[in-house]
Write a structure and sequence with these properties.
Bound molecules: pyridoxal-5'-phosphate
Oligomer: single chain
Largest sheet: 6 strands, mixed
Number of helices: 23
Distance between the termini: 60 Å
Strand order of the largest sheet: 4-5-15-10-11-14
Number of strands: 16
Radius of gyration: 22 Å
Strand content: 15-25%
Length: about 525
Amino acid sequence: MSSALHNLQKKGEITMEVYYSSTRDNSKKITASQAILQGLSADGGLFVPDHIPALSHSMKELAGMSYQETAYEVMKLFLTDFTEEELKTCIARAYDAKFDTDMIAPLVEAEGTYYLELFHGSTIAFKDMALSILPHLMITSAKKNHVENEIVILTATSGDTGKAALAGFANVAGTKIIVFYPKNGVSPIQEKQMVTQKGDNTFVVGIHGNFDDAQTGVKKLFNDKELAAEMAAHGLQFSSANSINIGRLVPQVVYYVYAYAQLLKEGKITEGEKINVVVPTGNFGNILAAFYAKNMGVPIGKLICASNENKVLFDFFQTGDYDRNREFKLTSSPSMDILISSNLERLIYRIAGSDPLKNAAMMKNLSEQGSYQITPEMRGQLSDFYGNFADEQETAERIKEMYENTGYVLDTHTAVASAVYQKYVADTKDETKTVIASTASPFKFTRSVMNAIDPKYDAMGDFELVDELSRIANVAVPKAVEEIRTAPILHDHVCDKTEMKAVVKQFLGIGKEST
Ligand SMILES: *Cc1c(COP(=O)(O)O)cnc(C)c1O
């Protein structure tokens, strides 16, 4: 691109259209709204933008903006087929009083590090950051593309996506939502949040299996042509609220831009100063958003990828081998209990030189053998990333130590990130100012958090623990937890992973009833 054009673009005078194509076949280009509607490409690939746009404002200018204004400035660069009015309406409906702070994503300083609290939305986990806007993006996309069908959101959840998607889509006209979660793989509060979900268009099902089983089953249903035809005959079509949907990824880029701008505004950093970012990682969506923010021009140094004992990503960054053939561990950070990090495919595609054939070959290996190996050349492009992990004991110790040092209570996922950050500093002596993505409220994982602080708490009931946490942390019980104390259970379906298709058809009232 000529530098004159680049300058104009930087000034925001020209916006270059961004088109999306599949990581497994980039011959077909579609618009952002089409990619949001489809969710996953029919060839099994993920939609990626054909380029990462540069920020059209300086960080100093962005430092004067609200969260909503920042969201517009970032999202308009990716969702170039949305009008200003459409996008601003989506943003206004998403980031409103559902959040318990006007900051939407506040930064809290503890031990000299900045915790970017992404859990102030209606389900108290970071999934709200994207899932409070996705339904609006989806409905707008349907209108723009003259889609008459009802949209059926099909989602696999490791605990947090499910509730955030249910909350986002409940009673949204023109949509239905079906959520599959691992019956024994989520926290009691997470499960209660989901099975008490109201809304005539919501369906929640526990499956006998783990998150990867749920995710694999959902991907299969998406690619089931027979099912798609039957649905179309009934005026229905699938879309996805999982982080494979580009409509989830784009809103997540916003808070990294916002965090940097806030640090600048508060004089914690100078303009251009690099920061590091630590992200507790499962499906690789959140950290990929940070990588996109870096590529837009946010001065980010290292992207520190924190895993729990399911440390497939740590091993990948160490060796260049991605290998899911290992024992799946249930940990106290269940939203990171994942062995197939779907969004990593977007990074693999990129470091393969945007070569869909190379990427598709690796993904074929992953589905057939459970592993793939990247080339030394590809590995050479991963220098932005650092990976490490924290085991269960290290995670619990981090919660206790942070509480004793500062009175601040971390949830288990954020504690994994915090423990990994300590390892990073010990390894590298890098003292760059650092933002840690704080992905859940400790009230969502109360038992694990309280047991880490003192094992005596294990004797208490779930909601007694909630009150005790509120007392010792001096933080009010979030509305999301108050609401489920007495809420009736509205969903009690459980099925085997082989029954997922039948269950979906039953809910949608199509085909034979399942037996
Ligand atoms: C989903 C989730 C994660 C993992 O995020 P990815 O984008 O899947 O990597 C981490 N922590 C919490 C609390 C989550 O809900």
